[in-house]
Design brief:
about 400 residues; alpha/beta; Aspartate Aminotransferase, domain 2; 2 domains; 7-stranded mixed sheet; binds pyridoxal-5'-phosphate
Length: about 400
């Protein structure tokens, strides 16, 4: 008889988004015709930019004629896209080769798949509050997880603890849910820790394009020694609106070796075994993101989300409420007023002003008492939500 993967029994129910959906549905049923202002979404709302749409159309046409048709794509990514990414990193002074870049169908896929590189006995370190996928992918694989809690005392940017024996370390910066971004020296401390211990950092850079402070690192490879201890996982989802189009990339330096094994070579072997590459059409769309036009247009879209962030931040400033994020990330992480708990504040906003956000407790116990707003809503809804929040909490 087949033996199922019993580690699935150890997964905790991911009640967060389910609970939010249940509570909002009940509210709408009891208040027909009411319009909710959804400030909780982790999905983009603006469409793909013109440069991408044009490239996608052209690529579809390529597939229509024998001379320009593409069949199977190279498993690790189309050379034209890998080269475009090399140039994008070179602008920031990071020197990579095309073979160090692996095109993927998205960061979530990679965050799960990449674990194929590691033995089950590795200890995983997750910084809480955390993006739930890091935890679940490792639980499914039967790995032990340690949690490093963060809080206001370190602005949700904890330092490595030398006594912790972490093998695989997840770092998400700019962070979802807190919007906090590690400074160069803070990130360098993690790189040093990983090199000293022989650990590997899985660096989730899904929000790098939202960074506006010049001095903050966009990539872990801006730090000394990262090429011997880090894998960077990137996505086109939030930066270029590809959430429904699906595209990402992963950087595994050739210098990343453990126990005589070269992680880059291992990943080539993995991809050539387990994938047949990402769609030619989508990769063409992705390459257009790195064109001059594409960069200009995606940043125009990002600016719209950033204006939303400003509106929400001004409201919280006016109220004197503690928060982090917003400036270099599309999330604002606020302290619930009057000592309210996360879900209590969720209910309060829903009932009183029909604003929906995300309770911080859903990202880990240390998120209790905090609340996440996303800036991906429309400018109109965001302005209205901010106005109502100020009125309610003044
Ligand atoms: C949205 C998000 C992703 C998702 O990436 P996809 O490329 O859409 O799979 C990855 N990491 C974090 C932290 C995210 O918030």
């Amino acid at each position: 008889m087949v033996k199922p993967n019993m580690y699935y029994n150890e997964l905790k129910d991911s009640y967060l988004f389910y609970n939010i959906a249940q509570k909002t549905r009940t509210y709408v049923e009891n208040h027909p015709g009411v319009k909710l202002l959804r400030m909780g979404i982790g999905d983009v709302s603006l469409p793909l930019c013109d440069a991408v749409i044009k490239a996608l159309h052209e690529a579809v046409d390529d597939q229509a004629s024998k001379s320009s048709f593409h069949g199977y794509m190279p498993e690790c990514g189309a050379p034209f896209l890998r080269e475009a990414i090399v140039k994008y990193y070179a602008k920031r002074g990071i020197s990579l080769s095309a073979e160090e870049i692996f095109v993927s169908s998205g960061a979530s896929d990679e965050l799960g798949d990449i674990l194929d590189l590691f033995d089950r006995s590795n200890q995983v370190l997750v910084i809480e509050p955390a993006y739930p996928a890091y935890v679940d992918a490792n639980v499914m694989a039967g790995r032990k997880i340690m949690y490093l809690v963060s809080g206001e005392e370190n602005e949700f940017l904890p330092e490595p603890n030398e006594k912790t024996e972490a093998d695989i370390i997840y770092i998400c910066s700019p962070n979802n849910p807190t919007g906090a971004v590690f400074s160069r020296s803070q990130l360098q401390a993690w790189v040093n820790y990983a090199n000293k211990r022989g650990s590997i950092i899985l660096f989730d850079a899904a929000y790098e394009a939202f960074i506006e402070d010049e001095i903050l690192p966009h990539s872990i490879f801006e730090l000394d020694g990262a090429e011997t201890c880090a894998i960077e996982i990137c996505s086109f989802s939030k930066t270029a609106g590809f959430t429904g189009t699906r595209l990402g990339y992963t950087i595994i330096p050739k210098a990343l070796k453990r126990n005589g094994m070269n992680m880059n070579e291992m990943w080539v072997r993995n991809r050539t075994t387990k994938t047949n590459g990402v769609s030619y059409i989508i990769q063409k769309g992705g390459a257009a993101v790195f064109s001059e036009e594409g960069q200009k247009q995606i940043h125009e879209n990002i600016q719209i989300y950033k204006k939303n962030a400003k509106v929400l931040m001004q409201a919280l400033d006016q109220l004197g409420i503690w928060y982090c994020g917003g400036k270099n990330a599309p999330y604002i992480w606020m302290k619930c007023p009057r000592g309210m708990k996360s879900w209590e504040f969720f209910d309060y906003l829903l009932q009183e002003i029909q604003v929906v956000g995300t309770p911080g407790e859903g990202f880990g116990a240390c998120g209790e008492g905090y609340f996440r707003f996303s800036t991906f809503s429309s400018p109109e809804d965001t302005k209205e939500a901010a106005k109502r929040i100020v009125k309610l909490l003044s």
